[in-house]
Write a structure and sequence with these properties.
single chain, about 110 residues, alpha+beta, four-stranded mixed beta sheet, 3 helices, about 25% helix, globular
Length: about 110
């Protein structure tokens, strides 16, 4: 099925790129990722922050909100989700940082 165009996709993509490149609060690491130790986590976080391998298969909506990396032989996925300011519901407008909180989840592919 073809992707539905998002007229705000470029704004969302720019916000997602900025979010991904600034690891910190709002990043969630799964138990499986954390269990592999600090050096693994540091390498994985750096790989996600530097990620720029977007194409029509992994980014059909042009929002740059998902990717996969391989660290020390393990495949990891990362995903950015958009919530309202209370983190209770979906954001009413992911292109508007005044009403959106982003959460980046980094997980082992086996945890998906």
């Amino acid at each position: 099925m073809p992707a539905i165009p998002n007229t705000n996709a470029s704004a969302v993509a720019a916000l997602n790129d900025a979010w991904r490149r600034q690891p910190g609060p709002g990043w969630t690491l799964t138990a499986g990722v954390r269990a592999l130790g600090e050096a693994f986590v540091a390498e994985a976080v750096a790989a996600v922050a530097a990620y720029d391998d977007f194409d029509g298969d992994n980014d059909p909506y042009g929002e740059r909100d998902f990717g996969a990396v391989r660290i020390q032989g393990r495949r990891l996925f990362w995903k950015i989700d958009y919530y309202d300011l209370g983190l209770a519901y979906a954001s009413p407008n992911p292109a508007d940082p005044a009403v959106t909180r982003r959460v980046l989840t980094l997980m082992l592919a086996s945890e998906y």
